[in-house]
Design goal:
174 residues, mainly beta, 5-stranded antiparallel β-sheet
Length: 174
C-alpha cells in the first residue's frame, strides 16, 4: 500500500523537457501551474583547456512549458550555447546559493537553487524573470514544487562565471 502511494510522486518528478540524448541539470514543476522548467545539457559536457585554446564540449538549453509542449527554448542554436549562460555560486556554513542566468529578448532569467538554514522554508528553487530595462525592479518569480531536480553546481567551470552577481565566488578553470 505504501509503495502505491509513492508512484504518482515519482512519476511527477521524472517529467522534464530533456531528451534521451541529454542529461537533466535542473528541472521542476512550477507550483500551482501545469508548467515545467528544465535546463538540459548534452551527455558530454566539459571545457578542455590547453595552453593555446579553450575547447568547449557540449551544449546547454533551457526549456519551459507544459509537459511535452515547450513554449520557450533558449538558445535556439546549440553551437556555442554554453557561452549564452553564466554561473554564480556562494557557500558558507548553512548557506548554499547557486544561480544560472541568461538573457533572452530583453529579459534576464535566473534559475536558482538556494539553501539557507536560517530561512523558512530552507530550500527555494525556481526561476526569476526580470526585464533588463526595468528601473523599478519588478520581477516575476516562479517557484518549483518540492520534487525539483538540481545539479546546477556541475556547471561550475563549464559555463562563464557571472562576475556581475553578488554570489559570484565561482571560478573558471585556468
Amino acid at each position: 500500500m505504501f509503495f502505491l502511494a509513492l508512484v504518482p510522486i515519482i512519476a511527477l518528478a521524472d517529467k522534464n523537457h530533456c531528451t534521451k540524448q541529454e542529461q537533466v541539470i535542473f528541472s521542476c514543476a512550477i507550483v500551482k501551474s501545469p508548467k515545467i522548467l528544465s535546463l538540459c545539457a548534452s551527455k558530454q559536457l566539459s571545457k578542455k583547456l590547453s595552453k593555446q585554446t579553450t575547447k568547449e564540449q557540449g551544449s546547454l538549453i533551457y526549456r519551459f512549458g507544459a509537459y511535452k509542449k515547450v513554449e520557450l527554448a533558449f538558445p535556439s542554436v546549440r553551437s556555442n550555447s554554453l557561452q549564452a549562460f553564466a554561473y554564480a555560486h556562494y557557500f558558507r556554513s548553512q548557506v548554499d546559493l547557486t544561480e544560472v542566468t541568461f538573457l533572452n529578448q530583453g529579459f534576464r532569467y535566473t534559475i536558482f537553487d538556494y539553501y539557507d538554514a536560517e530561512q523558512k522554508p530552507e530550500n527555494a528553487r525556481g526561476v526569476s524573470i526580470k526585464h533588463v530595462g526595468d528601473a523599478d525592479g519588478n520581477e516575476t518569480e516562479l517557484l518549483c514544487d518540492k520534487n525539483a531536480q538540481s545539479k546546477l553546481q556541475t556547471l561550475d567551470g563549464i559555463i562563464p562565471c557571472n562576475t556581475g552577481s553578488a554570489l559570484a565566488s565561482c571560478h573558471l578553470a585556468q
